[in-house]
Amino acid sequence: MSFIPGQPVTAVVQRIEIRKLRQGEHLILGFSIGGGIDQDPGQNPFSEDKSDKGIYVTRVTPEGPAEVAGLMMGDKVMQVNGWDMTMVTHDQARKRLTKKNEDVVRLLVTRKSLEQAVKHSMM
Amino acid sequence: MDNESQYSGYSYKSSHSRNSRKHRDRRDRHRSKSRDGSSRGDKSVTIHAPGEPLLDTESTRGDDRDDNWGETTTVQTGTSEHSVSNEDLTRVSKELEESSPLECRRFLGPGLGAVLGLFALVTPLAFLALPQLLWREALEPCGTPCEGLYVSLAFKLLVLLISTWALFLRPPRATLPRFYVFRCLLLALVFLFVASYWLFYGVRVLEPRERDYRGIVGYAASLVDALLFIQYLALVLLEVRHLQPAFCLKVVRTTDGESRFYNVGHLSIQRAAVWVLDRYYSDFPVYNPALLNLPKSILSKKSSGFKVYTLGEENNTNNSTGQSRAMIAAAARRRDNSHNEYYYEEAEMDRRVRKRKARLVVAVEEAFTHIKRLQDDEPAASSPKHPREVMDPREAAQAIFAPMARAMQKYLRTTRQQPYHSMESIINHLQFCITHNMTPKAFLERYLSPGPTLQYQRENGMGRQWTLVSEEPVTSALSQGLVFSLRRLDFSLVVTVTPLPFLHLGEEFIDPKSHKFVMRLQSETSV
């Protein structure tokens, strides 16, 4: 998950589709995000590379739509509905996830265990 | 100490007489010791006023208590105007000191200084008066310019008088082993000036009977100016030069390792010694010989060693060396547990002191609640059945001393301070504290921590004798790496001189608008 500036980022990703749940007048997804290019990357407990300014999943509410869909804490969100999440500010990320006219969000997330699983399967 | 007998059950008196008896034996031993000390090769100069005992009579165990810096023998005490230090004069002063006996030196300095000062002050007046007395008719009258000169002369003489009184007519506080070289130089300078002025006056004015009086007045005025400048020089050399710090002195007491650091300016060794001793009396805690030694229980265990027996061999010389070597090896291999015992002994001692201190504090607090200051507007007798007697501070102190006496005595015994505080002194201090409305804690501060040596001194006129031991001549200036020591009978202070470092001070300008900050963000949003 480390990136070399100037080179395209390659990662093994998992596609997760989350259906938003209606709670009152809000549509919630059931997880929290942290990170962004305007944030301090050194505080991120989930990233391997402490200069990684990507969007990470910091909390998943139990029995929420995200957990049901298979999202795990510590995942890095790479794309949301086709929009890139690796170089966005925190607020832009929040907006992409909470669009009122979308009922379902399709995320591409990556985590360390995915790479290892691919490595094992290739050997 | 004799008026302790009013409290018959009190054991201070007995402990004191024991100590003074012990000390009288010690005094004879010390007398012989210090006589040997002064015959050593290094330049140590001791001053003994004739007929004075080597030990001050009031001292019991710590003879550091009775320390008054009044001088007993005067060597270069000055009511003189001027003094200067010059390293070249040490040779001259050394010869002088060796040649002249002690009694002459005692009066030489101040007498010479006083005579010279008086002479110098009277000279301008004599310059003015002599022509008037001797050939008044032949003098040309001089009008306004002369009067101006008269007035300025009068004021300058007044200023000279006042500044001499302020600067030099002070009772000196120390007698130094050698000449105070600055002072001697200034005296010589004054003498030279005045002598040369008199010489010129005699040749140019008195002989040809000079008629220009204005010139004579101008001449006298110039002498007064010169004297003022010499006094300025004296001020700078004696008072101002040593104010700017240049050296750092480390003073260590040899017996218990108490050390302090002081900053001084450019001084000669003897003046620096006086300076250090001034600070010693107010900064260093009092020297208590009872607190020095490890308890005997720890040290005695070390003495038990191995006994080595010889089994009848002929070669004795070989055996003895082998024997000692074996003993040393055995002693080295044996496990030394004395540090363990020292640690536990210290902990036990701490605990004991704290316990006694707690008892003392409580006893004093309770004792202080027994008396109360009588306000002016209160009636003296609150009720006819319980008339309160009005006491003065002394009686009040004696009244409340009894409940705290035992706790105080035990505490002082534990901290080995009982030679320094007699019962009389405690009652005096109590009286003092009551008079000034002090709290029990303020009363106890004197006993809970060892104060500076000055606190324990007795009021008597005898000076304190210190011996300055140094390898350099004592009138030489302080320099890097110099070490000298000030010896007292049972301890000494070792002084090491290091120069203060030269400071390279740089500058950095910070624009006040350049102080800007950003937040370190780590927000977490739930979606």
From TrEMBL, chain A:
Mode of membrane association: Peripheral membrane protein
Coiled coil spans: none
UniProt xrefs under Pfam families: PDZ
Gene of this entry: LOC110524215
Residue ranges occupied by any PDZ domain in the UniProt entry: 15-112
Domain of life: Eukaryota
SMART domains membership: PDZ (SM00228)
Compartmental location: Cell membrane; Cytoplasm; Nucleus
Gene3D superfamilies in the record: 2.30.42.10
Cellular compartments per GO CC: adherens junction; basolateral plasma membrane; cytoplasm; nucleus; postsynaptic density; postsynaptic membrane
This protein's name: Tax1-binding protein 3
InterPro entries tied to this protein: PDZ, PDZ_sf, Synaptic_Scaffolding_LAP-MAGUK
Record's keyword terms, sorted: Acetylation, Cell membrane, Cytoplasm, Membrane, Nucleus, Phosphoprotein, Wnt signaling pathway
Biological process, per Gene Ontology: cell-cell adhesion; establishment or maintenance of epithelial cell apical/basal polarity; neurotransmitter receptor transport postsynaptic membrane to endosome; neurotransmitter receptor transport, endosome to postsynaptic membrane; receptor clustering; regulation of signal transduction; Wnt signaling pathway
Keyword hit for Membrane: yes
Primary location recorded for the protein, binned into one broad class: membrane
Automatic annotation (TrEMBL), chain B:
Region: Disordered, residue numbers: 1-92
A Pfam match: Strabismus
Ranges of compositional bias, category Basic and acidic residues: 34-45, 58-68
Keywords: Cell membrane, Membrane, Transmembrane, Transmembrane helix
Keyword Aminoacyl-tRNA synthetase carried by entry: no
Keyword flag Transmembrane helix: yes
Composition skew (Polar residues), residue ranges: 70-83
Topology term for the membrane: Multi-pass membrane protein
Family: Belongs to the Vang family.
Name of the protein in its database record: Vang-like protein
Protein species of origin: Salvelinus namaycush (Lake trout)
Lineage of source species: Eukaryota, Metazoa, Chordata, Craniata, Vertebrata
